[in-house]
Amino acid sequence: MNYNKYPTISIILSTYNSVKWLEKVLWSYSNQTYLDFELIIADDGSTKDTSALIENFSSQVPFKVIHLWQEDKGFRKCKILNKAILNSNAEYIIMSDGDCIVRSDFVETHKLKSEKGYFLSGGYFKLSLSISKIITKEDIENQNCFSTKWLLERGLKKNFKINKLNSRGLKQYLLNTVTPTKATWNGHNSSGWKSDIIDINGFNEKMKYGGEDREFGERLLNKGIKSKQIRYSAICLHLDHSRSYINDVDLTNNNNIRKETRNKNIVRTPYGLDRYKI
C-alpha cells in the first residue's frame, strides 16, 4: 500500500503478551473517522503470536503499522516507548495502550483539540472481565460496545462514570470543565507535540510500573506546557486484566523520582531519548 511518509499523527500503543486484547484494540483503529496516521506498536517483549497478529493486521489497513520489539527483560515500558518516539514520523503523537479499545472518533478528537503549548489528557472507561471477553469485531465496527444500553444489558453497573460514553455538545464541555480529576499525562489516552516530548528527553527509563506516565507529564508542565482536559471527549474502553508486574519496591522508587521531579522542577530526564543519540 502507498502510505504517507509524513502523516499528521503518530499513534504509539504499548503492549506485552496480550494478543486477544490487542486484536480488539487494532480493530478499533481500523474503524477511525480520521485515518491520516501511522500506528507504532511498542512491544515490551511479546512472543511470536503478537508479531503474527500485527503482520496480518498491517496487510489489511490503509495506514502504516510499525512493530517495535525488544527482548523480554522485565517491565521496560519506558525504554520501548522512547524507541517508538524516535521512530515516529509525525509532528503530533497520541499514546495509548494495547488494552484500550478506542471509539471511532478518538483520533479525530485528539487532532481537532490539539493546540500548540498544550498536551491533551484523556481517561478511560473500565470494563469488567466478562464484558471485555464478549466484545467482538462486529461490536467494535458498529460501535455497540460504546453504547450504554448495550453495556448495561450485559451486566455493567450504572454509575456516574457512564457519562463518559454518552456526553456530547454542551454536556461534554461542562463535564470536561468541572471534573475534579486533574489533566495529567495518562499513558492510556494522552497526546502532545513531538518537539515538546523531545525537549523533555522522553520517558525516564529508571522508572518501572506506577506513575511513569504522570512523571513524564509533570516534566512537560515544568517546561511550561499546559494541559487540556478531554476526559469526556476522547473515549476508550479499558479491557480488564491482571498486572503481575506490580511490586512495592518499584512503586516506592517511582514515587521518589516523581517527588524529585516536582521539588526540583526538572524538565529533562538524564535517562531518556538522548541515550539513543537523537
Compressed to H and E, one letter per element, the order equals EHEHEHEEHEEHHHHHEHHEEH
Looking at the overall shape, the CATH architecture is Alpha-Beta Complex
- First and last CA, distance: 29 Å
CATH superfamily: Spore Coat Polysaccharide Biosynthesis Protein SpsA, Chain A
The CATH class label is: Alpha Beta
Q: Helical stretch count?
A: 12
Largest sheet: 7 strands, mixed
| Poorly predicted spans | none
Q: What would you report as the Rg, rounded to the nearest angstrom?
A: 18 Å
What is the strand content?
15-25%
Number of strands: 10
By secondary-structure content and strand pairing, the structural class works out as alpha/beta
With strands numbered from the N-terminus, the spatial order across the biggest sheet is 3-2-1-4-8-6-9
Cα shape: globular
Q: How much helical structure, as a percent, in the residues? A: 25-40%
Q: Could you tell me the mean pLDDT?
A: 94
Q: Which fold name corresponds to the CATH topology?
A: Spore Coat Polysaccharide Biosynthesis Protein SpsA, Chain A
